[in-house]
Amino acid sequence: MERVPLRKIGKIVKREVPIEPTEMYQTVGCKLYGLGVYGREIKKGHEIAAKKMYRIRENDLLINRIWAQKGSAGIVPKHLDGAVVTNDFPVVEFDLTKVFPPYIAWYVKYQDFWDECRSHSHGTSGRERLKPKELPNITFPLPPLNEQQRVAAILDRLMERIDEARRQREAAMEAIKVFKKTSAQEYLNKKDYPHKSIATLCDIISGGTPSKSNPDYWDGSIPWVRPKNMKNKEILDSDAHITENALKETNIKLLEPDTVLIVVRGMIMVHTVPSAVLKNRAVINQDMKGLVVNDSLLPEYLCACLWIYNDKLLSLVEKSGHGTRRLPTESLLNFTIPVPTLFEQRQLLANLSALNGKIKEIQHLQITSKNDLEDLIPSLLQKAFAGEL
């Protein structure tokens, strides 16, 4: 396919806009990898350091000369017509008798465009910039206008199918997660097991933070667990540790393995009340509680229940005056869970483990299909701009 230099199909334009302190200006940016032009802040003139900026119009090609080699470019959409940019964003106005802008919007997603921008960029590694004077020499594979329209329409339809496949994959994963939770709830509810409060099933232990100004208390061997560490259902270690001196000289308590940890304060509780089973000796901070189960309860079963009934726990979370979420200790102690025999608890945990195994298999298949979809896009673009669609 014939490659045409930019200077033959468009021109670099500079529509200067003097910045007035009281006027409002829509600013924009360009996403990497050809993902397009997007709106940023709407600013008053006095918030903009530059004395002048440049107007962009619908169907202009906008290029970020700092990141052009990573595909930071796109066609200006209708809703951003009239926005402004700095001189770090060269603006190209196409001859619309020769160029169909949606076709160019697809081309800037293609590796060949990024590579050519790199070849026209100069500077030290990591700070290469596209030279505006070289921009007119960048070439585009350009068939006749009607063929550009045909190719863009085909790519639009194919991308719609790919996006729909992505949405279906994400919906399937969400449905599986919901099924896991609801099926466990239904199983426990229909068995008519006795419900008992956390207060009758556990001893509760508070956490704390040794003085950070005392170096003798920190960088020891004892994990200090915080809400940010609660990313798995089992806690083995932490990214912060305290010393034996901190244990001896403060009232912070050492928790033994099989203690169930639960977050009781933090912004994560906007959507989740995390819990996990501790697998090694550790301490916790003041935003958490440790639950030590009695002989009628398996710690893994308690943790499973806290996740199965997480929505109910979440309904007990309160909002403090400064916006932080907290689960009152009294509410946690009064929270009830069904308590089957130890044998039945083990049976439920085995069933949940088997279901988790199936979910992981499906997740693996989903990741594989996601990668296949992602790999499909470059091959489609290669065919499109080689004239093979």
TrEMBL record:
Gene Ontology MF annotations: DNA binding; type I site-specific deoxyribonuclease activity
InterPro entries in the cross-refs: Restrct_endonuc_typeI_TRD, Restrct_endonuc_typeI_TRD_sf, Type-I_RS_S_subunit
Keyword hit for Endoplasmic reticulum: no
CDD domains: RMtype1_S_EcoR124I-TRD2-CR2_like
Matching SUPFAM superfamilies: DNA methylase specificity domain (SSF116734)
Domain Type I restriction modification DNA specificity: 37-164, 193-360
Superkingdom of origin organism: Archaea
Any one GO biological process: DNA restriction-modification system
Coiled coil: 148-182
Enzyme Commission no: 3.1.21.3
Alphabetized UniProt keyword annotations: Coiled coil, DNA-binding, Hydrolase, Restriction system
EC category name: hydrolase
Listed Pfam families: Methylase_S (PF01420)
Family of the protein in this entry: Belongs to the type-I restriction system S methylase family.
Name by which UniProt lists this protein: Type I restriction enzyme, S subunit
Biological source species: Methanoculleus bourgensis (strain ATCC 43281 / DSM 3045 / OCM 15 / MS2)
